[in-house]
Amino acid sequence: MSRFSNLGHRLYQGEVSFDFVGRRKLWYSISGVIVLVAAIGLAMGLHLGIEFKGGSVYTVSKPGLTVSQAQDTANEVASSHPLVQSSDNGKIRIQVSTDETKSSDQIRSELSQKLNVPLDTVEAQVIGPSWGKQISQKALTGLIIFMVLVTVYLAIAFEWRMAVAALVALIHDLLITIGVYALVGFEVTPGTVIGFLTILGYSLYDTVVVFDTVKENTRGLTKQNKLTYSEAANAGLNQTLVRSLNTTVVALLPVAALLFIGGGLLGAGTLNDISLALFIGLAAGAYSSICVATPLLAQLKEEQPDLKALRKKVLQHRAAAAAKAEAVDGAPTDEEAADEDQPAGMVGQRGRSAGTPRAKGRPSSKR
Question: Which fold would CATH assign to domain 55-127?
Answer without folding.
Answer: Alpha-Beta Plaits (3.30.70)
